[in-house]
Amino acid sequence: MIYDHILVRYGEITLKTRNRKMFINALRQNMKRALTGFSIELAAQWDRAYITLNGEDPEAVMDAIENVNGILSVSPVAKLEKSEEAMKETAVHFAEEFTKGETFKIEVRRADKSYHLKTFDIQYMLGGYVLENVPDLKVDVKHPDHQIMVEVRTDGIYMYHEVRQCIGGLPIGTGGRALLMLSGGIDSPVAGLEVMKKGIEIEAIHFHSPPYTSPQATEKVKQLVDIMSKRTGADIKLHIVPFTELQTKIYDWIPDNMSMTTTRRIMLIIAERLAERIDGKAIVNGENLGQVASQTLTSMHAINAVTNFPVLRPLLTLEKNEIVEMARRYGTYETSVLPYEDCCTIFKPKSPKTRPLVEKVEKFESKVDFEPMIEKALEGIECYSVNETEEKEAFSSLL
Ligand code: ATP
Ligand code: MG
């Protein structure tokens, strides 16, 4: 079958009435980004969008957009001239792919009210023609195994029968911006992708401590950002914070069993200041209740005490195996398990306190002036984004 269009159905956008235009515009932008490199045309309408393939492979185009937030499902579509013969031939073509004994239904949308055949005429004509020409199929109008969809529009007849389910949710960028604390482990990329599902745009912050952390560890975080950007069609910016000076200061001055708490507190202070600068409205992390010493309720309380910013923890109560399953589905797992140490693993205390009290931590921290080092770390931030790399590569190929 020669498919020449892709039909895109919207997810939660269809629940919006007043500001739907804004949601559709955001989705159009994100789809366009995910389809960079394809010579397609995209028309986003009030209740659905159409992609004109211009000869591009329909499967490849659907692969590229199936994880764009806001899309409920997609179908490859054949656009036909407005003739009975063309419709009949296509219906049989579709039905030949069905298995013997299966049931089908012809579903008609007659947008062009002036077309000479009425809805029932088309259903009757095509249903009968398929039954005559494809053996061992039955019609079932209530619970069919397959639906053959026929849309009569002014510019032609659109027919399709396959439906590929997509991710749904809301288009990224419609829910404000948040800063994701991205560690390179399994959890934080999943946490980021979860909030993105609700339309939230993400920038990421990563703390590294060279030479204690290897360049490969930082590369791995960049790779995770690439995977997340590619998957969602969103351009995620990564802020890499030089953390060595602070980390060694903590190591030297804070008792071993409290150092993890202080490390997390300072990371959160820096994250908050960056979030404010980028007009972020929340910080997101991959914390999971009870998973490690720094993630008990008392620990979270002591760490959280440095900020009034909302800290979103989308994985808070999940089981580890559920998170692993999500990471596999999102395609981040293989990269997350690469064996490069991150800064917390290296400076990990032997027996971190599971119940650090705020007053105690504050007492030890008051002996050190962290503030100038915090400001220096913020000044030393390096930025990375997939698009910048692609732009740089494209630019250098012109030279
Ligand atoms: P992950 O798999 O995300 O690393 P984890 O179970 O290893 O999670 P921790 O290492 O205790 O958990 O970290 C908890 C959260 O703190 C992480 O999910 C992440 O959001 C944040 N975090 C930890 N280390 C870093 C880092 N080097 N840079 C940025 N964020 C970090
Ligand atoms: Mg970690």
Structural commentary:
This protein has 399 residues and is α/β, with parallel strands linked by helices. It folds into 2 domains: 5-165, 2-Layer Sandwich (VC0802-like), CATH 3.30.2130; 177-398, HUPs (Rossmann fold, 3-Layer(aba) Sandwich). Helix content is 42%, strand content 19%. The chain contains 15 helices and 15 strands. Strands 1, 2, 3, 4, 5, 6, 7, 8 and 9 form a 9-stranded mixed sheet that branches. Strands 14-13-10-11-12-15 form a 6-stranded mixed sheet, with helices on both faces. Strand 10 (177-181), helix 5 (187-196) and strand 11 form a beta-alpha-beta unit. The protein is elongated, with a radius of gyration of 27 Å. The two termini are 43 Å apart. The mean pLDDT is 91. Magnesium ion binds next to loops.
